[in-house]
Prior knowledge:
Elements: H1 9-13, E1 23-25, H2 32-35, E2 40-42, E3 60-65, E4 71-77, E5 83-89, H3 98-115, E6 120-125, E7 134-139, E8 142-147, H4 150-153, H5 156-167, E9 171-176, E10 188-194, E11 200-204, E12 207-211, H6 226-232, E13 240-244, H7 250-257, E14 262-267, H8 270-283, E15 289-293, H9 296-305, E16 310-315, H10 327-343, E17 345-355, H11 362-375, E18 380-386, E19 405-411
Parallel strand pairs: 1-3, 8-9, 13-14, 13-16, 14-15, 16-17
Antiparallel strand pairs: 2-5, 3-4, 4-5, 6-7, 7-8, 9-10, 11-12, 17-19, 18-19
Helix pairs in contact: 3-5, 9-10, 10-11
Amino acid sequence: xxxxxxxxxxxxxxxxxxxxxxxxxxxxxxxRRIKQGHCWVYSNEIDIERSQFKTFAAGxxxxxxxxxxxxxxxxxxxxxxxxxxRLYSRTDQQSLDGAFIRRQVTAxxxxxxxxxxxxxxxxxxxxxxxxxxxxxxxxxxxLVMQINTAGMMVVLEAIVRSLIDVLKPAGIVLxxxxxxxxxxxxxxxEVVYGEVPDFVEIIENGVAFNVPxxxxxxxxxxxxxxxxxxxxxxxxxxxxxxDVYSYLGGWGLQAMASGAESVTCVDSSASALAQAEVSATTxxxxxxxxxxxxxxxxxxxxxxxxxxxxxxxxxxxxAFIKRRKDQRSGENAYHHINQLAIKLLAESxxxxxxxxxxxxxxxxxxxxxxxxxxxxxxxAMIVHQGGLGADHPVNVAMPEMDYLKAVFARID
Length: 412
């Protein structure tokens, strides 16, 4: 990556006049969703005869208009993708340039500073901060970026410059775990500014965690369940807690810190459990916590055979439904894991059943908890429902952004 200047103010002032953006025209009656505030454009909505769309390189910026020429906004486009366009502005001819990106980063930073007392949060949440395809998590002086689109990768240098100007971090790393062939993005982990250690310490809800920012899952940590993990604390005093799909022990360690009698963490990743154990030992919980490696279903079945009982069980699995075609098999997987967990719950025990599957609506997860309880002869009473926190702002016209669910149910 080219050497970055300390400040971009003078650089931007010397830039040549911006080129005129090409125009993408929607088909008749395809603009209603966009007018209502949605920011995504699909390839079957574009009038190919009236647009240069097919000749675009991936990430091309353009102005979007309806069939009558009404400007709907500015965005970037990829003719190879079904979800081919993402608006970042509602104005005409707005380039995704350094000045625009800096304004969005500044606004995102100001909001998080107002919401959180410590520098540990999701700094940028894609469309929720008018920077679609970009996710940035802040771990104190270290920023970890995930870029999901060619349109954002094109302006990587401007993003980094803006982050340096606004936050003055010690280091920035770009982490894309998997190759994205449609968006022409390779899998990569690259330090794009400063120095980034392999591990950083963060504080969430008063509890310290050792986070592998260079080699962990996604950006290293999952801030999305922060509020639900804080709520769990009120239910854990003197309780036996089981944290399934624990990763770094986010739920389990916070349960321990809130007075749990014991906590068992289950995960298939030995490295994740090792880091959870480091955090537990540092906090002085090593004698009250145990860590079981294995597939969640196999471990739960083993615990059932041993006739073990827990007062609180947290299920926070990866997305079982990643695509529409996975709907039935994914829902079956949620049913299976919830039934096994309920068999391990004490009378009037608490089940926290979570899902990050975009294609599983909240009401479906609630029904899964209810039917899973009924199938083992028990009854579920919803006592709370959790979701995304303030560092994950959701555009109300885009329910796709509101992917996270957590159902707190007392199982009688």
